Fold:
Amino acid sequence: MTIMLMISWLLLALGLMFFLAGSIGLLRFPDSFSRLHAVTKADTLGLGLLVLGLSLQSSWREGLLMALIWLIVMASGAVSCQLLARFSDEQPSESATQQED
Amino acid sequence: MTITLWLFLRRSLWFGLVAAACWAVLTANSGWGFFTLLLPLLLLWQWHYPLPMPALRWRYLPACLLLFGRQLLLGGFDVAVRALGWRPLDSSNFCHYQSQLTSPASRLLLASLISLLPGTCTISLQPDGMLRLHVLDQTANWQQEIAALEWQLARLFGQSGSGEQP
Amino acid sequence: MSVVALILLFSMLLGIWRVLKGPALLDRLLTIQLFGSTGVAILLVLSKVFALPALLDVALLLAILAAAAPAALVQRLRQQKQRSRQRTSL
Structure:
């Protein structure tokens, strides 16, 4: 049982690291579209690891519900990333930091 | 008639199982009396207005999910490493990728999944299947990673014959 | 476990700096997404801390709302832009 708990805490710590990395990326990356990468990917993965870690400490039903929540967040992240990117791509005057090839 | 009935029954079984799982999860395993009342109504509705589901070849789903899961992990790791400054970020740019998928549903799915692959993010999807992307590292072979996922999706959606596995 | 929630809160608050600084509208909109996913994570952890399973339902609701928010916002901003363009062309 203690091994399960240890794995769970390891996953929680990893998830936290990804969340922090996502926020740091949002602050540090030089242009808007790179920041989009940071938020979408790091947070999705962080939440996944967190859910995995938490579900090791809870019942199967809570685990399933958390997995469902993760799926919703992942889907919404992927879709709204695209929406925001397309929207900001349409207005070149306001997004001054973007570079065109 | 018998074939339609058989198909409907097989579909109902899956529908019922998924509905029961959702009910168990969302209601904290209670109120099954309501569920037994609700399920026939839902099935009746299904009989008259079947949900438009793309014909998937389910046996290919695990391989697809496995690839996607691995890429999701790599993608998160890659972006985290870059955020912490252990890998430089100096060759990000806009790129194009021509998708070979034919059905609109699979193209849309590919466009959404690309945002979670390492180093790529979809900006827009044109009607002819041309994807406008933002790539974190131009020097990486992101084309090959997208093509691998695309191949899996083509197989899942039953559009195989588009070539060898990349 | 509550330390986990605090660290998550901290990483969420880091996003506010980006809202204030900008510079593009996309940067500010991105924080919505950050708040959505991190908020869900905080609620999941808190439901463990306080042993309140109801918070999982709150998290589910927040996840659904966070999915709808960027779509609604982009739609609204687009309409605004179209309207202002019509006004200038008149």
Remarks:
- Chain A touches chain B at residues 17-18, 21-22, 24-25, 28-31, 33-34, 36-38, 40-42, 44-46, 48, 61, 64-65, 68, 74-75, 77-79, 81-82, 85-86, 89, 99-101 (CB under 8 Å).
- The radius of gyration of chain A is 17 Å.
- The helical segments of chain A are 2-28, 32-55, 60-90.
